[in-house]
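re: ur question from earlier - yeah i can do the single chain one, its not a big deal. heres the input i used so u can compare w yours
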Amino acid sequence: MSRYTGPKCRLCRREGAKLFLKADKCLSAKCPFEKRPTVPGVRTFRRGKPTGYQLRLREKQKVKRFYGLSDKTFYLYYKEAVSIKGNTGEQLLSLFERRLDNVVYHLGFAQSRTEARQVIGHGHVTVDGRKVNIPSFIVKEGMVISHGTRDSSKKLIKENIDFTKMREKPTWVNVDQEAITGKVLSLPTRDDVSVEIDEQLIIEFCSR
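and the output i got, formated as tokens:
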């Protein structure tokens, strides 16, 4: 699937949930989803009760769009989650949460996950002192995320931290605003996922 470049609020309306794709605008009164939460498109009133397949598909699409994944990447994570001991659905969500772009977003180094991918891709982020420009990099417990060596990197990260300092952050990461660094204190659990997701429906869809 190619990268989606259309209206992001349309995706929230299609999935019937706020996916927080437009930074802090999603938390303000200007959020279009609050004013128009209906499914986009004409003649929506003719749509009947969704089938079991549609419910499972929509749940998969919701989590894919929330984390900004392509179909190919999504199924690679699914295959990896299947190979890990434990509940496959929870392992899948844990892998999504541990993506570097998601961690950078949670730390406040970027205002949205889309911006987080751009920040990482431009080399503004280091992990344990080494530059990492791969948004899909999976972080581990104890890793330290910081700004790059360039002055522009430090300035950008510092501005974003100041802008997002009031945003609630998950307990499995910690931010040192003075040192402009963040640390992964522990691996995320199922309760750390901030959007309502029924992972069982996703697993059923992928394993059909």
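The chain has two domains: 8-40+48-96+196-206, 99-184. not sure if urs matches, ping me
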